Amino acid sequence: MYQVLFWPLAGQTRVALLTANRKSTSRRRAIDLGAGSTAMTALRQPLLRILMLTLFGACAFLLPAQNIDIQSDEDKPLEERLVYTRQNTFNAGIHSQGFGAGFKIGKIKSIHVTRNWEAEVISLHSLKEIKTVNLSQYNSRPFVYGKLNSVYVVRFGYGEERRVFGKPYWGGIETRWTYEAGASLALAKPYYYYVVTYQPNSTGGYIETIEEKTFEQGIDILGKASFIKGIGETRPSPGVHASLGLSFDIGKSRTTVQAINVDVKAEYFPLGVSIMDSERNKKVFVTFMLSYNWGSRFNNY
User: Fold this and answer.
1) At 74, is the pLDDT very low, low, confident or very high (cuts 50, 70, 90)?
2) What was the pLDDT predicted at 11?
């Protein structure tokens, strides 16, 4: 008489046959139904070892073949191993409504963040300006018809540079976000023309004279007057500005800065700025600027 029992043990199913006639010392015989799974496991382990050894050997063979010259810190010049805390740069560039130049005094907080105090002077033109000449007059100077003021803007601000992508060990380009905000002061100098005027004389005729005047509808313009004319009549207009952009540092050394910046700047003047007769007291200006920055990184000690 036999009794069949089933129970799980270590992920396998075992069948035990118990003899009924030997109750005191029953003999158990186990039949391992998981022999196939055990065989697969035993076969998989040596295959995994062979694969790992193959990959390790391939890496050991290919890495020397790359011939990569990674220079250690001890082999680099001293100026390349120091950590710098200061960064001063100059910049010059063009924007969608003029040109400008300025400088930045920066403090390097970490490899990711540099904070700058900035100052900049730009010229501000109108998109409606069209330079022309008076073809009826010989050797006339070019001028912009309808222009009221030549405008220059002085900016003072505070901003940050935040690293997005650093330079690889072999060099390359470092990319940074830049943002800045601050105060603006627009200086509007009246734009003068050489104008022909006619004054009646005692004989009933007219005397032709040339005067320097600002723009009026219907005037007979000969050309643009001297730049210094009207400097004493310059009028200020305060405002605020903010900018956002990207900086691409292409410098080959950690001690030098050579970067190309692309920025968009927004400016607001509560009192307005008049450049052209057709758009008086314009308050908001948005410009796109491309500039080249150069300078150095150093320590004060």
Assistant:
1) low
2) 42
Give the model confidence (pLDDT) of 128-186 as tens digits: 999 999 888 777 899 999 999 999 999 999 999 999 998 876 778 999 999 999 999 99
Please say if the pLDDT value at position 29 is more than 70. Answer: no
Q: Where are the domains of the chain?
A: 2-66, 85-138+149-190+233-298
- Cα of first residue to Cα of last residue in the chain, in angstroms, is 99
Higher pLDDT, 58 or 260: 260
Question: Per CATH, the architecture of 85-138+149-190+233-298 is what?
Answer: Beta Barrel (2.40)
Nearest C-alpha neighbor of 165 from the set 177, 174, 157, 155 = 174
Cα separation, 71 vs 22, whole angstroms: 81
Concatenate the DSSP letters of all residues of the chain into one string: -EEEEEEEETTEEEEEEEESS-STT---EEEETTHHHHHHHHHHHHHHHHHHHHHHHHHHHHHHHH------GGGS-HHHHSPP-EEEEEEEEEETTEEEEEEEEEEE-SSSEEEEEEEEEEEE--TT--EE--TTSTTPPPEETTB-EEEEEEEEEEEEEEEEEPPPTT---EEEEEEEEEEEEEEEEE--EEEEEEEE-TTS-EEEEEEEE---TT-EEEEE--TTTTGGG-EEEEEEEEEEEEEEE--SSTTEEEEEEEEEEEEEEEEEE--BTTBTTEEEEEEEEEEEEEEEEE---
Rounded CA-CA distance 238/272 in Å is: 9
pLDDT of residue 82: 67
